[in-house]
Write a structure and sequence with these properties.
Number of domains: 3
Strand order of the largest sheet: 3-2-1-4-5-6-7-8
Order of helices and strands: EHEHEEHEHEEHEHHHHHHEHEEHE
Number of strands: 12
CATH topology of the largest domain: Rossmann fold
Radius of gyration: 24 Å
Largest sheet: 8 strands, mixed
CATH class of the largest domain: Alpha Beta
Shape: globular
């Protein structure tokens, strides 16, 4: 791949353009909002404006509702040898394109499983896709050369290719992306009118649950509106669990000992099923979740504190597998949770104490 055209210079389109440009591909940038294309170009993502002739690959990075029409226009204009989109829903655009009577041999649907709470070209980064799955949904008509172009794009962006059927993809993202976003927003909505005293008690748990609720609502309306059936199916299951849990909690308020016992079992059931589901979430390097132990360290909110901790862990010969930070409300301090393999805990704790760190159980 020597040349590419990116149509749609939001977070995903600009990030892909930055990654390609950094690897020597000549990228052209087009957007219905000229200011967005100018911003992406100013960030080094490529040259603003359409190319003079066909490019190797056209990347359609527009909302799902506009994918088919944008692709059709590009195809009819002979913009590229191969075409792909990066929308988060695949079945609908694929059916729309087929309905337009276009030759789909030069097209492949794709979806990079990566993003941020922020959108737009200013939020884009060249490393956005590194190590992340990038789904490819070829049709039976997709030409091998176009599949190879898509695989080259994925490789240049540092992502991991995953080939799926379009409908299976849409059911999967309803489960692992779209429904979680709605549920996160529902939990976060409880905070909107909550008493300030309660809100000040927010800890890491509520921050984890509501993190993705900070995303742009209009963008997510477009995404979910393109995949309503599978999302509704998953959400119906969540609603059933909610109903059962509410009944279990009401039973715990009963004066009847048997009802309280049944209520406790009901709550325990949903928690245990949650444990089982969480255990299936892929861990580091895509494998199963590893059994890490946590070493918690108190740090002050000053420059260089994290660098010191990591340097001291290196001094102990310990690899930090993961890290989380919990900020203390109203204080210039916080807790850093260092996840390490169990065998590394003694060496790490000994070194950190020797270096003057305050550890917490």
């Amino acid at each position: 791949m020597r040349t590419a055209l990116v149509i749609g210079t939001g977070l995903i389109g600009t990030s892909a353009a930055l990654a390609l440009t950094a690897r020597g591909v000549a990228v052209h940038l087009v957007d219905h909002d000229p200011a967005a294309a100018r911003t992406a170009a100013a960030r080094g993502a490529g040259a603003e404006g359409a190319p003079d002739g066909p490019v190797d690959l056209a990347i359609i990075a527009v909302p799902p509702a506009y994918v088919a029409t944008t692709l059709a226009e590009a195809m009819r204009g002979g913009a590229a040898r191969g075409y792909l989109d990066v929308a988060s829903v695949k079945g609908g655009p694929q059916r729309e394109l087929a309905g337009l009577g276009l030759d789909l041999s030069s097209y492949i649907g794709t979806h990079p499983m990566s993003g941020k709470e922020r959108s737009g070209p200013l939020a884009a980064t060249a490393d956005l896709f590194e190590g992340r799955p990038w789904v490819l949904t070829p049709t039976r008509d997709t030409d091998t050369s176009v599949l190879n172009l898509a695989l080259e794009l994925v490789a240049l962006c540092g992502a991991v290719p995953v080939v799926m059927d379009a409908e299976a993809h849409d059911r999967a993202v309803a489960l692992v992306s779209h429904t979680p976003h709605l549920v996160s927003s529902m939990v976060a909505a409880r905070l909107a009118d909550a008493d300030e005293t309660a809100v000040r008690l927010c800890g890491q748990g509520i921050r984890d649950v509501t993190r993705i609720a900070a995303s742009e609502p209009r963008m997510w309306v477009e995404i979910i509106a393109a995949n309503p059936g599978p999302v509704a199916d998953v959400l119906a299951g969540v609603a059933a669990d909610l109903d059962d849990t509410v009944r279990a909690l009401r039973s715990l308020q009963s004066a009847d000992e048997d009802k309280r016992h049944d209520g406790a079992l009901g709550v325990e059931d949903v928690l245990r099923r949650g444990n089982a589901g969480r255990a299936r979430v892929p861990g580091k390097h895509g494998g199963g979740p590893a059994a890490y132990e946590t070493v918690t360290v108190l740090i002050s909110d000053q420059p260089g504190q994290l660098a010191r901790i990591f340097a001291d862990a290196d001094r102990a010969g310990v690899n930090i597998e993961d890290v989380r930070i919990e900020h203390a409300t109203g204080q210039q301090a916080g807790l850093v949770q260092l996840m390490v393999v169990p065998a590394s805990v003694p060496a790490l704790t000994e070194t950190l104490r020797e270096r003057g760190w305050s550890l917490r159980q």
